[in-house]
């Protein structure tokens, strides 16, 4: 029986430099490199990357070079690489997406504007590979339409996968941060290969849906899931529409801990406890720490600086008295932007419109954002020339 085998990987964020630490940028490249070794060891037919390949849409020359070397390595093994744009990858000015540069190394960028698909045959077993890049802001209304198109196409194929990069409710929450509900997902695909949510997740309820998760920790909010599940990739076997999924944990992930309940009296003891936790590799662990209580912050900081068997995230969060941390205030803000707008406009519809206009401006190239907004408002605007647009 012929089986098509591929690797689902996501949110590699090449070039990311957590807490501005050089060592974290190297960790991200190392994680990517490990995923490619897994793909080669597992003899996959292709790699499916569900977006946020790079951390920013205009990556540094260094991260482009690192990716070129990675792409060359798998191209030499004849492993094609299919990828879509995540929200981090979509150009915010008139420009090409970075991933497009590497087409000559077998990197196929799918669905930058709408659903796109192609078919491949491996050992006589055919598979449809579909992709739709991240959609948000005012484009969001297109998403269910694109999913319907994709679903219809998938119903013509026995084996099919869809690459998409979205927050799906209730696999992610709050609902306000999601672009789509699980009931609107296409149902005909053998495997829905999703990106965007950095904690890995798999459900086979109704359909097979997976967030592969990020390959390295991108923020301290991922530590909890990392301690339980680790970071990893999915190796997926497909045959006659049936899928078999094997999760492979990465070994290179730098251990991270998050101490949130320390006081000025016990923070050193709490750090000491971590010295006894079993680790997956020799890398020096990274520790984020929040210390609450009356104290002299400069004494604490000088004590933390003396620790050399851990990387302590600087600055540590030190809360004297009852003030809330910056992070808490920020979270509260983000959860209630619509509420603020609603109070301002006195109207829920207006608030939602303003929110999606803001998201559009933040996530799109200027000209595209402008025309999306005009279209939404029903304003006709004749552009004098489009010659400056790249194809
Ligand atoms: Mn991401």
What does this protein look like?
- The protein has 391 residues and is α/β, with parallel strands linked by helices.
- The protein folds into 3 domains: 4-249, 4-Layer Sandwich (Purple Acid Phosphatase, chain A, domain 2), CATH 3.60.21; 256-330; 336-391, no CATH class.
- Helices cover 30% and strands 22% of the residues.
- It contains 10 helices and 18 strands.
- It has a 6-stranded mixed beta sheet. It has a 6-stranded mixed beta sheet with strand order 5-6-7-10-12-11, with helices on one face.
- β16 (286-292), α6 and β17 (311-312) form a beta-alpha-beta unit.
- α9 packs antiparallel against α10.
- The radius of gyration is 23 Å and the shape is globular.
- The model has no long low-confidence stretch (mean pLDDT 91).
- The structure holds manganese (II) ion.
- Manganese (II) ion is lined by residues 11, 52, 86, 88, 196, 198.
Brief overview:
This protein has helices spanning 22-41, 61-76, 142-154, 223-229, 267-274, 297-305, 326-335, 337-345, 348-363, 366-376, and strands at residues 4-9, 46-49, 81-83, 107-109, 116-122, 125-132, 160-165, 168-169, 180-181, 191-195, 201-203, 209-211, 232-239, 242-249, 256-262, 286-292, 311-312, 317-319. With 391 residues, the protein is an alpha/beta fold.
